[in-house]
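Quality-control log, excerpt.
Job 1 of 2 completed; input and output follow.
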Amino acid sequence: MTWGTGPLPTHLVRGLPTNIGKYLELSEGTRMDKVTLFIIDEQPIFRQGLRQTLSVYDDMEVLGECDPTADVCSIVESLSPDIVLVDVGVRLLRGFDVTRQIATHCPKVAVVVLAPNPDDEQLFRAIKSGAVAFLSKDIPPDKLGGVLKRVGRGEYPINESLLAKPNTARQVLRLFQSFALKDMETLMTPLSPREMEILRYVAEGNPNKRIASALNISEQTIKNHITSIMRKLNANDRTHAVVLAVRQGWLNIEDHSEIPAGDEAVVTR
Protein backbone atom coordinates (compact mmCIF):
# COMPACT_ATOMS: atom_id res chain seq x y z
CA MET A 1 0.00 0.00 0.00
CA THR A 2 1.43 3.36 -0.97
CA TRP A 3 0.96 6.96 0.10
CA GLY A 4 2.07 9.51 -2.47
CA THR A 5 5.26 8.04 -3.88
CA GLY A 6 6.29 5.93 -0.87
CA PRO A 7 4.99 3.54 1.77
CA LEU A 8 2.04 4.54 3.94
CA PRO A 9 3.47 6.21 7.07
CA THR A 10 3.68 4.03 10.18
CA HIS A 11 1.43 6.35 12.20
CA LEU A 12 -1.34 5.81 9.63
CA VAL A 13 -0.99 2.05 9.61
CA ARG A 14 -0.99 1.63 13.38
CA GLY A 15 -4.33 0.37 14.63
CA LEU A 16 -5.75 -0.46 11.17
CA PRO A 17 -6.96 -3.98 10.32
CA THR A 18 -4.24 -6.29 8.98
CA ASN A 19 -6.35 -6.95 5.88
CA ILE A 20 -6.96 -3.28 5.14
CA GLY A 21 -5.37 -3.71 1.72
CA LYS A 22 -8.36 -5.82 0.71
CA TYR A 23 -10.66 -2.87 1.19
CA LEU A 24 -8.56 0.18 0.57
CA GLU A 25 -6.92 1.63 -2.50
CA LEU A 26 -4.94 4.84 -2.08
CA SER A 27 -4.33 7.32 -4.86
CA GLU A 28 -1.05 8.98 -5.81
CA GLY A 29 0.02 12.59 -5.48
CA THR A 30 -2.34 13.94 -2.79
CA ARG A 31 -2.04 17.72 -2.44
CA MET A 32 -2.98 19.77 0.57
CA ASP A 33 -4.97 22.32 -1.43
CA LYS A 34 -7.47 19.74 -2.67
CA VAL A 35 -10.78 18.69 -1.15
CA THR A 36 -10.08 15.11 -0.12
CA LEU A 37 -12.71 12.40 -0.51
CA PHE A 38 -13.30 8.82 0.56
CA ILE A 39 -15.89 6.46 -0.98
CA ILE A 40 -17.87 3.77 0.87
CA ASP A 41 -20.01 1.53 -1.33
CA GLU A 42 -20.57 -2.22 -1.51
CA GLN A 43 -20.19 -2.29 -5.32
CA PRO A 44 -16.56 -2.07 -6.56
CA ILE A 45 -17.75 -1.09 -10.04
CA PHE A 46 -19.66 1.90 -8.67
CA ARG A 47 -16.70 2.96 -6.54
CA GLN A 48 -14.41 2.86 -9.57
CA GLY A 49 -16.95 4.75 -11.67
CA LEU A 50 -17.26 7.44 -8.99
CA ARG A 51 -13.48 7.73 -8.81
CA GLN A 52 -13.37 8.24 -12.57
CA THR A 53 -16.15 10.82 -12.44
CA LEU A 54 -14.38 12.85 -9.76
CA SER A 55 -10.96 12.58 -11.42
CA VAL A 56 -11.87 15.42 -13.82
CA TYR A 57 -11.81 17.92 -10.95
CA ASP A 58 -8.34 19.31 -10.26
CA ASP A 59 -9.40 20.57 -6.84
CA MET A 60 -10.60 17.16 -5.59
CA GLU A 61 -8.70 14.02 -4.66
CA VAL A 62 -10.11 10.58 -3.81
CA LEU A 63 -7.93 9.20 -1.02
CA GLY A 64 -9.43 5.75 -1.10
CA GLU A 65 -12.46 3.52 -1.04
CA CYS A 66 -13.84 0.56 0.88
CA ASP A 67 -16.80 -1.75 1.36
CA PRO A 68 -19.20 -0.84 4.22
CA THR A 69 -18.25 -4.09 5.97
CA ALA A 70 -14.69 -2.83 6.55
CA ASP A 71 -13.53 -1.16 9.76
CA VAL A 72 -14.78 2.16 8.41
CA CYS A 73 -14.16 4.37 11.43
CA SER A 74 -10.52 3.28 11.75
CA ILE A 75 -9.87 3.92 8.07
CA VAL A 76 -11.61 7.30 7.97
CA GLU A 77 -10.01 8.42 11.22
CA SER A 78 -6.54 7.53 9.91
CA LEU A 79 -6.92 9.17 6.48
CA SER A 80 -8.94 12.20 7.71
CA PRO A 81 -10.66 13.04 4.40
CA ASP A 82 -12.69 16.22 4.14
CA ILE A 83 -15.72 14.34 2.79
CA VAL A 84 -16.92 10.73 2.90
CA LEU A 85 -19.50 9.53 0.38
CA VAL A 86 -21.64 6.70 1.79
CA ASP A 87 -23.98 4.52 -0.23
CA VAL A 88 -27.16 3.49 1.62
CA GLY A 89 -28.32 1.11 -1.07
CA VAL A 90 -29.11 -2.55 -0.45
CA ARG A 91 -27.86 -2.55 3.15
CA LEU A 92 -29.99 0.42 4.10
CA LEU A 93 -29.59 0.21 7.86
CA ARG A 94 -25.88 -0.55 7.58
CA GLY A 95 -25.35 2.54 5.42
CA PHE A 96 -27.02 4.88 7.90
CA ASP A 97 -25.21 3.20 10.79
CA VAL A 98 -21.89 3.86 9.03
CA THR A 99 -22.94 7.49 8.49
CA ARG A 100 -23.79 7.92 12.17
CA GLN A 101 -20.54 6.31 13.32
CA ILE A 102 -18.44 8.62 11.14
CA ALA A 103 -20.40 11.71 12.19
CA THR A 104 -19.98 10.74 15.86
CA HIS A 105 -16.35 9.64 15.92
CA CYS A 106 -14.96 11.90 13.17
CA PRO A 107 -16.94 15.16 13.58
CA LYS A 108 -14.60 17.13 11.30
CA VAL A 109 -15.42 14.80 8.39
CA ALA A 110 -18.51 15.70 6.33
CA VAL A 111 -20.68 12.75 5.27
CA VAL A 112 -22.60 12.82 1.98
CA VAL A 113 -25.26 10.12 1.64
CA LEU A 114 -25.95 8.57 -1.78
CA ALA A 115 -29.28 6.75 -2.18
CA PRO A 116 -30.38 4.68 -5.22
CA ASN A 117 -34.06 5.35 -4.51
CA PRO A 118 -34.23 8.43 -2.26
CA ASP A 119 -37.45 9.11 -0.37
CA ASP A 120 -38.68 11.13 2.61
CA GLU A 121 -37.95 8.39 5.13
CA GLN A 122 -34.36 8.03 3.95
CA LEU A 123 -33.90 11.82 4.07
CA PHE A 124 -35.14 11.77 7.66
CA ARG A 125 -32.68 8.96 8.53
CA ALA A 126 -29.85 10.85 6.84
CA ILE A 127 -30.55 13.94 8.95
CA LYS A 128 -30.68 11.89 12.16
CA SER A 129 -27.42 10.17 11.19
CA GLY A 130 -25.57 13.46 10.80
CA ALA A 131 -25.18 13.68 7.01
CA VAL A 132 -24.53 17.10 5.46
CA ALA A 133 -25.98 16.19 2.06
CA PHE A 134 -28.50 13.64 0.76
CA LEU A 135 -28.24 12.82 -2.96
CA SER A 136 -29.61 10.38 -5.50
CA LYS A 137 -27.04 8.00 -7.00
CA ASP A 138 -28.43 9.10 -10.35
CA ILE A 139 -27.24 12.69 -9.81
CA PRO A 140 -25.53 14.18 -12.91
CA PRO A 141 -21.72 14.32 -12.55
CA ASP A 142 -21.54 18.12 -12.85
CA LYS A 143 -24.18 18.58 -10.14
CA LEU A 144 -22.38 16.09 -7.87
CA GLY A 145 -19.16 18.02 -8.30
CA GLY A 146 -20.94 21.26 -7.43
CA VAL A 147 -22.45 19.81 -4.25
CA LEU A 148 -19.11 18.37 -3.12
CA LYS A 149 -17.41 21.74 -3.63
CA ARG A 150 -20.08 23.40 -1.49
CA VAL A 151 -19.64 20.77 1.21
CA GLY A 152 -15.90 21.37 1.04
CA ARG A 153 -16.59 25.04 1.81
CA GLY A 154 -18.53 24.02 4.93
CA GLU A 155 -22.08 24.28 3.54
CA TYR A 156 -24.98 21.92 4.36
CA PRO A 157 -26.93 21.15 1.17
CA ILE A 158 -29.15 18.76 3.13
CA ASN A 159 -30.97 21.83 4.47
CA GLU A 160 -32.28 22.54 0.96
CA SER A 161 -33.42 18.93 0.59
CA LEU A 162 -35.35 19.31 3.84
CA LEU A 163 -37.04 22.56 2.78
CA ALA A 164 -38.32 20.81 -0.34
CA LYS A 165 -39.94 18.06 1.77
CA PRO A 166 -42.51 19.59 4.17
CA ASN A 167 -43.57 16.23 5.60
CA THR A 168 -39.98 15.38 6.50
CA ALA A 169 -39.49 18.89 7.89
CA ARG A 170 -42.42 18.30 10.24
CA GLN A 171 -40.88 14.99 11.32
CA VAL A 172 -37.59 16.71 12.09
CA LEU A 173 -39.37 19.45 14.02
CA ARG A 174 -41.23 16.89 16.15
CA LEU A 175 -37.98 15.00 16.70
CA PHE A 176 -36.15 18.09 17.92
CA GLN A 177 -39.08 19.05 20.13
CA SER A 178 -38.86 15.61 21.73
CA PHE A 179 -35.08 15.94 21.87
CA ALA A 180 -35.37 19.25 23.69
CA LEU A 181 -37.72 17.78 26.26
CA LYS A 182 -36.25 14.43 27.12
CA ASP A 183 -34.83 12.16 24.44
CA MET A 184 -31.16 13.00 23.87
CA GLU A 185 -30.21 9.38 23.39
CA THR A 186 -31.84 8.94 19.96
CA LEU A 187 -29.73 11.61 18.30
CA MET A 188 -26.55 11.67 20.35
CA THR A 189 -25.56 8.15 21.28
CA PRO A 190 -24.01 5.88 18.62
CA LEU A 191 -25.44 2.86 20.45
CA SER A 192 -28.63 1.02 19.57
CA PRO A 193 -31.45 0.66 22.15
CA ARG A 194 -30.45 -2.98 22.76
CA GLU A 195 -26.79 -1.98 23.29
CA MET A 196 -27.86 0.73 25.74
CA GLU A 197 -29.96 -1.83 27.62
CA ILE A 198 -27.00 -4.20 27.88
CA LEU A 199 -24.65 -1.39 28.91
CA ARG A 200 -27.02 -0.46 31.77
CA TYR A 201 -26.83 -4.05 33.04
CA VAL A 202 -23.04 -3.98 32.69
CA ALA A 203 -22.92 -0.73 34.68
CA GLU A 204 -24.70 -2.52 37.55
CA GLY A 205 -21.98 -5.18 37.63
CA ASN A 206 -23.95 -8.02 36.05
CA PRO A 207 -21.93 -10.77 34.30
CA ASN A 208 -22.68 -11.75 30.70
CA LYS A 209 -24.44 -14.97 31.72
CA ARG A 210 -26.91 -13.16 33.95
CA ILE A 211 -27.62 -10.47 31.35
CA ALA A 212 -28.21 -13.15 28.71
CA SER A 213 -30.68 -14.92 31.00
CA ALA A 214 -32.56 -11.69 31.72
CA LEU A 215 -32.84 -10.82 28.02
CA ASN A 216 -33.51 -14.42 26.94
CA ILE A 217 -30.67 -14.46 24.41
CA SER A 218 -27.40 -16.38 24.22
CA GLU A 219 -24.29 -15.40 26.15
CA GLN A 220 -22.39 -15.19 22.85
CA THR A 221 -24.88 -12.61 21.60
CA ILE A 222 -24.20 -10.54 24.72
CA LYS A 223 -20.46 -10.80 24.05
CA ASN A 224 -21.03 -9.66 20.46
CA HIS A 225 -23.05 -6.65 21.64
CA ILE A 226 -20.38 -5.68 24.17
CA THR A 227 -17.68 -5.92 21.49
CA SER A 228 -19.79 -3.63 19.29
CA ILE A 229 -20.31 -1.19 22.19
CA MET A 230 -16.57 -1.01 22.87
CA ARG A 231 -15.81 -0.48 19.19
CA LYS A 232 -18.37 2.31 18.78
CA LEU A 233 -17.19 4.12 21.91
CA ASN A 234 -13.47 3.44 21.31
CA ALA A 235 -13.40 1.88 24.77
CA ASN A 236 -10.54 -0.26 26.09
CA ASP A 237 -12.84 -2.53 28.11
CA ARG A 238 -16.44 -2.78 29.37
CA THR A 239 -15.75 -0.59 32.42
CA HIS A 240 -14.24 2.08 30.19
CA ALA A 241 -17.36 1.90 27.99
CA VAL A 242 -19.58 2.58 31.01
CA VAL A 243 -17.41 5.52 32.08
CA LEU A 244 -17.54 7.04 28.58
CA ALA A 245 -21.32 6.63 28.36
CA VAL A 246 -21.84 8.24 31.77
CA ARG A 247 -19.46 11.09 30.89
CA GLN A 248 -21.42 11.80 27.69
CA GLY A 249 -24.73 11.77 29.58
CA TRP A 250 -26.06 8.72 27.70
CA LEU A 251 -26.16 6.57 30.83
CA ASN A 252 -27.44 7.51 34.27
CA ILE A 253 -25.91 5.25 36.91
CA GLU A 254 -28.76 6.14 39.26
CA ASP A 255 -31.21 4.35 36.97
CA HIS A 256 -31.55 0.66 37.79
CA SER A 257 -32.59 -2.29 35.63
CA GLU A 258 -32.73 -4.94 38.31
CA ILE A 259 -32.37 -8.53 37.17
CA PRO A 260 -34.47 -10.92 39.27
CA ALA A 261 -32.46 -13.44 41.24
CA GLY A 262 -32.92 -17.05 40.32
CA ASP A 263 -32.15 -19.44 37.52
CA GLU A 264 -29.65 -17.98 35.07
CA ALA A 265 -29.93 -20.61 32.38
CA VAL A 266 -29.19 -19.07 29.03
CA VAL A 267 -31.25 -19.69 25.93
CA THR A 268 -29.01 -20.88 23.09
CA ARG A 269 -29.89 -19.42 19.70
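Job 2 of 2 completed; input and output follow.
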Amino acid sequence: MGKVIICSGRLAGKPFVPDGTDKRLYSIEEICHYVNNNVYSIDMKFFSHHLTDYIREELKLPAVADKLKRLVEDGFSLNDVITALFCSCDLYSKDEILETIELVKSLEEMPDWERKAFIGYKKLEEKKYLAALKCFRGTLKVESLADRDYGLVLKAMGICLIHVSSFSEAANCFYKSYKYTGSNKALLLAILALKLGGHEKEFNEKVGEFTNDEAVISKAESVWKETERLALNSENISRIENVFGKLKTYKVAEGYKEIEFKLEEFKTEYREGAWNGLIS
Protein backbone atom coordinates (compact mmCIF):
# COMPACT_ATOMS: atom_id res chain seq x y z
CA MET A 1 0.00 0.00 0.00
CA GLY A 2 1.11 3.59 -0.59
CA LYS A 3 1.87 6.05 2.14
CA VAL A 4 -1.14 7.83 3.62
CA ILE A 5 -0.49 11.56 3.36
CA ILE A 6 -1.82 13.54 6.31
CA CYS A 7 -2.33 17.11 5.11
CA SER A 8 -2.27 19.63 7.94
CA GLY A 9 -2.06 22.62 5.61
CA ARG A 10 -4.38 24.10 3.02
CA LEU A 11 -5.92 22.02 0.24
CA ALA A 12 -6.06 24.01 -2.99
CA GLY A 13 -9.16 24.30 -5.13
CA LYS A 14 -7.23 23.45 -8.28
CA PRO A 15 -4.28 21.07 -8.60
CA PHE A 16 -0.65 21.55 -9.50
CA VAL A 17 0.20 19.16 -12.35
CA PRO A 18 3.95 18.51 -12.87
CA ASP A 19 5.06 18.74 -16.51
CA GLY A 20 4.83 15.49 -18.43
CA THR A 21 2.60 13.77 -15.86
CA ASP A 22 -1.06 13.36 -15.03
CA LYS A 23 -0.42 13.74 -11.29
CA ARG A 24 -2.72 16.19 -9.53
CA LEU A 25 -1.26 17.69 -6.36
CA TYR A 26 -3.45 19.73 -4.03
CA SER A 27 -1.27 20.45 -0.99
CA ILE A 28 2.30 21.18 0.09
CA GLU A 29 2.44 17.67 1.58
CA GLU A 30 1.48 16.10 -1.77
CA ILE A 31 4.12 18.17 -3.56
CA CYS A 32 6.75 16.97 -1.06
CA HIS A 33 5.58 13.38 -1.47
CA TYR A 34 5.81 13.67 -5.26
CA VAL A 35 9.34 15.08 -5.09
CA ASN A 36 10.47 12.38 -2.67
CA ASN A 37 9.04 9.57 -4.82
CA ASN A 38 10.53 10.99 -8.04
CA VAL A 39 13.73 12.46 -6.66
CA TYR A 40 15.85 10.58 -9.24
CA SER A 41 14.26 12.59 -12.06
CA ILE A 42 13.71 15.91 -10.26
CA ASP A 43 15.96 18.81 -11.26
CA MET A 44 15.93 22.58 -10.81
CA LYS A 45 13.45 22.96 -13.67
CA PHE A 46 10.79 21.47 -11.40
CA PHE A 47 11.14 24.48 -9.07
CA SER A 48 9.97 26.92 -11.70
CA HIS A 49 7.90 30.03 -11.18
CA HIS A 50 4.84 27.90 -11.97
CA LEU A 51 5.44 25.93 -8.77
CA THR A 52 6.32 28.90 -6.59
CA ASP A 53 3.35 30.88 -7.93
CA TYR A 54 1.10 27.92 -7.15
CA ILE A 55 2.45 27.65 -3.60
CA ARG A 56 1.99 31.37 -3.07
CA GLU A 57 -1.42 31.87 -4.67
CA GLU A 58 -3.23 28.55 -4.31
CA LEU A 59 -1.73 27.17 -1.11
CA LYS A 60 -1.42 30.62 0.53
CA LEU A 61 2.18 29.95 1.63
CA PRO A 62 4.01 33.11 0.51
CA ALA A 63 6.97 32.59 2.85
CA VAL A 64 7.63 29.12 1.43
CA ALA A 65 7.23 30.35 -2.15
CA ASP A 66 9.59 33.30 -1.56
CA LYS A 67 12.24 31.11 0.05
CA LEU A 68 12.18 28.56 -2.77
CA LYS A 69 12.30 31.31 -5.39
CA ARG A 70 15.24 33.01 -3.66
CA LEU A 71 17.22 29.77 -3.36
CA VAL A 72 16.72 29.02 -7.07
CA GLU A 73 17.58 32.55 -8.21
CA ASP A 74 20.66 32.76 -5.97
CA GLY A 75 22.08 29.54 -7.40
CA PHE A 76 21.74 27.28 -4.36
CA SER A 77 22.00 23.52 -4.88
CA LEU A 78 19.13 21.16 -5.57
CA ASN A 79 19.76 19.71 -2.10
CA ASP A 80 19.15 23.09 -0.50
CA VAL A 81 15.93 23.66 -2.42
CA ILE A 82 14.53 20.19 -1.64
CA THR A 83 15.47 20.58 2.03
CA ALA A 84 13.63 23.91 2.19
CA LEU A 85 10.57 22.37 0.56
CA PHE A 86 10.52 19.37 2.91
CA CYS A 87 10.97 21.60 5.96
CA SER A 88 7.86 23.58 4.99
CA CYS A 89 5.60 20.87 6.40
CA ASP A 90 5.76 17.95 8.85
CA LEU A 91 5.44 15.09 6.37
CA TYR A 92 9.01 13.80 6.78
CA SER A 93 11.25 13.36 9.80
CA LYS A 94 14.79 14.74 9.96
CA ASP A 95 16.24 11.29 9.25
CA GLU A 96 13.96 10.80 6.23
CA ILE A 97 14.97 14.19 4.83
CA LEU A 98 18.68 13.41 5.30
CA GLU A 99 18.22 10.06 3.55
CA THR A 100 16.68 11.77 0.51
CA ILE A 101 19.40 14.41 0.47
CA GLU A 102 22.10 11.72 0.44
CA LEU A 103 20.39 10.12 -2.56
CA VAL A 104 20.29 13.47 -4.37
CA LYS A 105 24.01 13.95 -3.66
CA SER A 106 24.87 10.54 -5.06
CA LEU A 107 22.79 11.23 -8.18
CA GLU A 108 24.53 14.57 -8.73
CA GLU A 109 27.92 12.86 -8.51
CA MET A 110 27.03 10.27 -11.18
CA PRO A 111 28.29 10.67 -14.74
CA ASP A 112 25.50 11.79 -17.09
CA TRP A 113 25.15 8.34 -18.70
CA GLU A 114 24.89 6.61 -15.32
CA ARG A 115 22.21 9.01 -14.14
CA LYS A 116 20.22 8.41 -17.35
CA ALA A 117 20.56 4.66 -16.85
CA PHE A 118 19.53 4.95 -13.19
CA ILE A 119 16.39 6.88 -14.18
CA GLY A 120 15.72 4.27 -16.86
CA TYR A 121 15.89 1.43 -14.34
CA LYS A 122 13.51 3.32 -12.03
CA LYS A 123 11.05 3.81 -14.88
CA LEU A 124 11.40 0.11 -15.71
CA GLU A 125 10.55 -0.81 -12.11
CA GLU A 126 7.44 1.36 -12.42
CA LYS A 127 6.52 -0.43 -15.69
CA LYS A 128 6.81 2.83 -17.62
CA TYR A 129 8.46 1.05 -20.51
CA LEU A 130 8.48 3.80 -23.14
CA ALA A 131 9.94 6.33 -20.71
CA ALA A 132 12.57 3.79 -19.64
CA LEU A 133 13.42 2.99 -23.26
CA LYS A 134 13.98 6.70 -23.98
CA CYS A 135 16.43 6.93 -21.06
CA PHE A 136 18.32 3.81 -22.12
CA ARG A 137 18.63 4.97 -25.71
CA GLY A 138 20.03 8.26 -24.45
CA THR A 139 22.55 6.32 -22.37
CA LEU A 140 23.82 4.37 -25.39
CA LYS A 141 24.76 7.61 -27.19
CA VAL A 142 27.68 8.07 -24.79
CA GLU A 143 30.85 7.09 -26.68
CA SER A 144 32.95 6.35 -23.60
CA LEU A 145 30.60 3.69 -22.23
CA ALA A 146 32.42 0.50 -21.21
CA ASP A 147 31.43 -2.70 -23.04
CA ARG A 148 29.88 -4.30 -19.95
CA ASP A 149 27.81 -1.21 -19.14
CA TYR A 150 26.73 -0.97 -22.78
CA GLY A 151 25.63 -4.59 -22.67
CA LEU A 152 23.69 -4.20 -19.43
CA VAL A 153 21.78 -1.23 -20.86
CA LEU A 154 20.99 -3.27 -24.00
CA LYS A 155 19.58 -6.00 -21.78
CA ALA A 156 17.33 -3.49 -20.01
CA MET A 157 16.20 -2.16 -23.40
CA GLY A 158 15.27 -5.69 -24.42
CA ILE A 159 13.02 -6.02 -21.39
CA CYS A 160 11.28 -2.77 -22.36
CA LEU A 161 10.87 -3.89 -25.97
CA ILE A 162 9.17 -7.12 -24.88
CA HIS A 163 6.34 -4.93 -23.61
CA VAL A 164 6.15 -2.17 -26.23
CA SER A 165 7.57 -3.59 -29.46
CA SER A 166 8.27 -6.88 -31.23
CA PHE A 167 9.73 -10.01 -29.67
CA SER A 168 12.24 -10.15 -32.53
CA GLU A 169 13.57 -6.66 -31.75
CA ALA A 170 13.80 -7.55 -28.06
CA ALA A 171 15.65 -10.78 -28.90
CA ASN A 172 18.20 -8.84 -30.95
CA CYS A 173 18.81 -6.49 -28.00
CA PHE A 174 19.37 -9.42 -25.66
CA TYR A 175 21.71 -11.06 -28.14
CA LYS A 176 23.74 -7.86 -28.53
CA SER A 177 23.87 -7.66 -24.73
CA TYR A 178 25.29 -11.19 -24.69
CA LYS A 179 27.95 -10.22 -27.22
CA TYR A 180 29.07 -7.28 -25.06
CA THR A 181 28.86 -9.00 -21.66
CA GLY A 182 29.31 -12.70 -22.38
CA SER A 183 26.38 -13.33 -20.02
CA ASN A 184 24.55 -16.59 -20.69
CA LYS A 185 21.53 -15.07 -18.95
CA ALA A 186 21.28 -12.46 -21.72
CA LEU A 187 21.54 -15.23 -24.30
CA LEU A 188 18.82 -17.13 -22.46
CA LEU A 189 16.59 -14.06 -22.59
CA ALA A 190 17.22 -13.76 -26.34
CA ILE A 191 16.04 -17.34 -26.86
CA LEU A 192 12.99 -16.84 -24.65
CA ALA A 193 12.05 -13.68 -26.52
CA LEU A 194 12.14 -15.64 -29.78
CA LYS A 195 10.03 -18.33 -28.14
CA LEU A 196 7.44 -15.72 -27.16
CA GLY A 197 7.21 -14.74 -30.84
CA GLY A 198 5.48 -18.05 -31.44
CA HIS A 199 6.83 -18.79 -34.93
CA GLU A 200 8.53 -22.18 -34.78
CA LYS A 201 10.38 -21.94 -38.11
CA GLU A 202 11.75 -18.47 -37.39
CA PHE A 203 12.61 -19.57 -33.87
CA ASN A 204 14.70 -22.51 -35.05
CA GLU A 205 16.50 -20.41 -37.66
CA LYS A 206 17.26 -17.54 -35.31
CA VAL A 207 18.39 -19.71 -32.42
CA GLY A 208 20.94 -21.23 -34.78
CA GLU A 209 22.28 -17.73 -35.43
CA PHE A 210 22.48 -16.96 -31.72
CA THR A 211 24.08 -20.12 -30.38
CA ASN A 212 24.76 -23.82 -30.95
CA ASP A 213 25.31 -24.42 -27.24
CA GLU A 214 22.86 -27.21 -26.44
CA ALA A 215 23.13 -26.56 -22.71
CA VAL A 216 21.89 -22.98 -23.13
CA ILE A 217 19.09 -24.03 -25.49
CA SER A 218 18.06 -26.80 -23.07
CA LYS A 219 18.02 -24.33 -20.18
CA ALA A 220 15.79 -22.00 -22.19
CA GLU A 221 13.38 -24.87 -22.93
CA SER A 222 13.31 -25.76 -19.23
CA VAL A 223 12.53 -22.17 -18.22
CA TRP A 224 9.86 -21.97 -20.91
CA LYS A 225 8.12 -25.16 -19.74
CA GLU A 226 8.15 -23.97 -16.13
CA THR A 227 6.66 -20.65 -17.22
CA GLU A 228 3.93 -22.48 -19.12
CA ARG A 229 3.20 -24.63 -16.08
CA LEU A 230 2.90 -21.61 -13.78
CA ALA A 231 0.80 -19.66 -16.27
CA LEU A 232 -1.59 -22.55 -16.91
CA ASN A 233 -2.09 -22.95 -13.16
CA SER A 234 -2.75 -19.24 -12.69
CA GLU A 235 -5.93 -17.65 -11.41
CA ASN A 236 -6.64 -16.14 -14.82
CA ILE A 237 -6.79 -19.50 -16.60
CA SER A 238 -9.16 -20.75 -13.89
CA ARG A 239 -11.35 -17.71 -14.47
CA ILE A 240 -11.40 -18.42 -18.21
CA GLU A 241 -12.51 -22.01 -17.54
CA ASN A 242 -15.23 -20.72 -15.22
CA VAL A 243 -16.52 -18.37 -17.90
CA PHE A 244 -16.72 -21.23 -20.40
CA GLY A 245 -18.70 -23.17 -17.83
CA LYS A 246 -21.16 -20.31 -17.48
CA LEU A 247 -21.73 -19.80 -21.20
CA LYS A 248 -24.94 -21.79 -21.04
CA THR A 249 -26.49 -19.21 -18.76
CA TYR A 250 -24.90 -16.16 -20.40
CA LYS A 251 -25.98 -14.41 -23.53
CA VAL A 252 -23.48 -15.73 -26.08
CA ALA A 253 -22.10 -12.29 -27.04
CA GLU A 254 -21.57 -11.29 -23.41
CA GLY A 255 -19.97 -14.61 -22.57
CA TYR A 256 -17.42 -14.43 -25.36
CA LYS A 257 -16.71 -10.78 -24.58
CA GLU A 258 -15.77 -11.76 -21.03
CA ILE A 259 -13.63 -14.64 -22.30
CA GLU A 260 -11.78 -12.26 -24.60
CA PHE A 261 -11.09 -9.93 -21.67
CA LYS A 262 -9.84 -12.80 -19.49
CA LEU A 263 -7.64 -14.08 -22.30
CA GLU A 264 -6.00 -10.66 -22.60
CA GLU A 265 -5.31 -10.69 -18.85
CA PHE A 266 -3.89 -14.19 -19.16
CA LYS A 267 -1.63 -13.28 -22.10
CA THR A 268 -0.22 -10.32 -20.18
CA GLU A 269 0.48 -12.49 -17.16
CA TYR A 270 1.93 -15.22 -19.38
CA ARG A 271 4.21 -12.77 -21.16
CA GLU A 272 5.54 -11.19 -17.97
CA GLY A 273 5.97 -14.59 -16.34
CA ALA A 274 8.77 -15.47 -18.74
CA TRP A 275 11.00 -12.91 -17.03
CA ASN A 276 10.52 -14.04 -13.43
CA GLY A 277 13.93 -14.44 -11.86
CA LEU A 278 15.73 -13.50 -15.08
CA ILE A 279 15.80 -9.70 -15.03
CA SER A 280 18.48 -9.23 -12.39
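Post-run check on job 2. The longest helix spans residues 252-273.
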